[in-house]
Amino acid sequence: MHDNSMVQAMLRAQRNEITEHQIYTKLAQSTSDPHNRDVLERIAADEKRHYELWRTLTRQEVKPDRLLYWRYVIIAWLFGLTFSIKHMERGEASAKHNYAALGASVPTASTIAREEEKHERALIAMLDEERLKYVGSVVLGLNDALVELTGSLAGFSFALQNAPLVGVVALIMGVAASLSMAASEYLSTRHEDTGKSPVKSAVYTGVAYLITVVLLVMPYLLHFGVYEALGIALALAMGVIVVFSYYVSVAQDQPFGKRFAEMAVVSLGVAALSFLIGLAVRAAFQIDI
Questions:
Q1: Are 167 and 149 in contact (CB under 8 A)?
Q2: Which of 15, 181, 221, 223 could make an SS bond with 62 (beta carbons 3.0 to 4.6 A apart)?
């Protein structure tokens, strides 16, 4: 017989297994890659088997966590299969602690824990998602847009001191720069033996640049004061850096802090320098708009 706390721990493990079974099943149905689908289906079957093992011990049926299920299905839809699975792996720390606590009294827990480790290695080995091949192109577009736009917006804000005018000038400059960046990435990839499509590389770079431009320029076109718009734009830039740094840190197993700090320091450093340049230009040419 097991005491109540142990039964509850086993029920949590049982629910975790049936939830992951449904998540992996859904992800398998969503991927077009035959190899990835096969691996995901096998892992889903193992999760179902683990659920059955727990059920023989608890003698109870449990329902999956629908909130957790939809969370990872939506994450996979928005950010891709790789990010969703690795994000789920990071969230399994509590499950591992639960298995470790049960292992001394329930040998089944140790067996399942060992198999879970094999699952993670198999997942890491099989992941080959197309969008991750073009992360470098996205980084190029985002980095250039963040550095150039934060600096330009800061300089224009102090030099022109007219929010709509700054917004229009920055938007025109940003659209032109996104096309230029896309063309440069196309030519660069075309002459490199990277196995990547030059067209796709150009599209990822150009779209990443253009989205960042629109996001940062938007406050200037929404009737905010010039300095309010600048503050909002810088906050949005930090938001973009946080989100993208976290995405790369999860999808490519890289340290979040180092990537975030590097992008933030460069972007804010250029913006600060541009503040001073804008003041100098305004004073030197006595611009008053």
A1: no
A2: 15
Return d(Cα 28, Cα 231) in angstroms, integer.
44
- Here the tokens at position 125 are 């080995």
Q: How does pLDDT run across 24-54, given as a tens digit for each residue?
A: 999 999 888 887 888 888 888 888 988 988 8
Q: Is the pLDDT of residue 1 over 60?
A: no
Three-state SS annotation for 152-188: HHHHHHHHHCCHHHHHHHHHHHHHHHHHHHHHHHHHH
Does pTM top 0.85 for this prediction? no
Same domain, 145 and 278: yes
Measured distance CA(285)–CA(73) in Å, rounded: 56
As to burial, measured by CB atoms within 10 angstroms (0-12 exposed, 13-18 middle, 19+ buried), residue 26 is middle
Are 153 and 262 part of one and the same domain?
A: yes
Query: Are 84 and 151 part of one and the same domain?
Result: no
Domain span at 154: 131-285
